[in-house]
Design goal:
disordered N terminus, single chain, WD40/YVTN_repeat-like_dom_sf, five-stranded antiparallel sheet
């Protein structure tokens, strides 16, 4: 049973939101499965009822990062002895072969020891068909790679600046390009866009403050807009803004005029709506907006105080999962919101 079911005045598809605390661990986008590390394994368990199933990782590989694919069919896990030596596992949630991604391709864990490499970050493509990977480098230029689960091949998506791989690199994919940000000394001032097929970065937005950078939050799956927050030199985050990708002037504007906080966000799978966490009147809330009009469809109160770091948010069907992005990355606290 949830701890609250809130009827709301709404103008749109959703009229209420059922908010309930989720289990510790990585919650699937559908809110029905949780993945947790346990003694060199990743265990999957149904949230409501059922037996857990576990997948063994290689000896000495400690999970440090986990992310479900947008469709919930796979779990990406980075695990290794330290931050600069990690294997990239791709685990099917319904059983089957566990894949390991290396610099030269994708292999089966049962037949190949997992290659360990120095990865700055990893993310899924919006169609769950590939994993994006950014290896660290001390060179001027770096490569953003894509590991295709179908062909099991590694290809280069495009070039980025080498310093971005040694900073707080964040990447969010869309159907027509990839948005990126970092807090690198030169690249951090800008929000970047890498168009599909172009392999060339261009500047999408800029933080004009001295020593400031841009903190990427989310990208529209259709590639029409990107959400980000300005980050001051001391790390303080400003209000979340939306930047148009398609406008010749790349127009940016505050997303929620009555909130000055930087929140987590996720677009609906079709890109028509947006769920964003925000502080409204001193209370943590989840706001659902119509993307085309900017109209608020509904607002639901979330338990707890404002998080130190913008939450990680996923959206699948009628389920929005809000997870703590500032704590344990393989066993975060979460809230499951079911839209009605």
């Amino acid at each position: 049973m949830s701890d609250r079911s809130v009827p709301l005045s709404a103008a749109g598809d959703w009229t209420s939101a059922d908010v309930q605390p989720g289990p510790a661990g990585i919650v699937s986008p559908a809110g029905d499965l949780v993945a947790t590390p346990a003694d060199g394994r990743i265990c999957f368990a149904p949230i409501l009822a059922g037996e857990a199933t576990c997948v063994e990782l290689a000896p000495a590989d400690r999970p440090s990062f986990g992310l479900f694919s947008p469709d919930g069919a796979w779990l990406l896990v980075l695990a290794g002895p330290d931050e600069h030596s990690r294997a990239a596992y791709v685990i099917p949630v319904t059983g089957g072969v566990t894949h390991v991604i290396g610099p030269t391709g994708i292999d089966d864990l049962a037949t190949t020891p997992p290659p360990h490499w120095d990865l700055a970050t990893a993310a899924w493509t919006v169609d769950s068909s590939a994993v994006l990977l950014a290896p660290r480098t001390d060179q001027l230029d770096a490569a953003l790679l894509a590991a295709d689960l179908g062909s099991k091949r590694i290809g280069e998506v495009g070039q980025l600046f080498g310093e971005m791989t040694n900073a707080d690199l964040r990447i969010r994919a869309s159907a027509v390009g990839v948005a990126m940000s970092s807090d690198g000394p030169s690249s951090g001032q800008f929000l970047w866009w890498l168009g599909a097929g172009t392999k060339v970065l261009y500047r999408l937005a800029r933080n004009e403050s001295s020593g400031g950078s841009v903190y990427l939050v989310a990208a529209d799956p259709r590639g029409q807009s990107v959400l980000s927050c300005p980050r001051a030199a001391d790390g303080t985050l400003g209000a979340i803004t939306v930047t148009s990708v398609q406008s010749p002037q790349t127009v940016s504007a505050e997303l929620l005029p009555d909130s000055k906080s930087c929140g987590g966000a996720a677009f609906s799978p079709d890109g028509s709506q947006l769920a964003v966490t925000a502080m409204l009147d001193g209370r943590s809330s989840l706001v659902v907006l119509n993307v085309a009009s900017g109209r608020r469809v509904l607002t639901a109160a979330l338990p707890g105080a404002e998080p130190a770091v913008p939450a990680s948010v996923t959206w699948w069907d009628d389920v929005v999962v809000v997870s703590d992005a500032g704590g344990d990355q393989v066993a975060p606290s979460s809230v499951i919101v079911r839209l009605r």
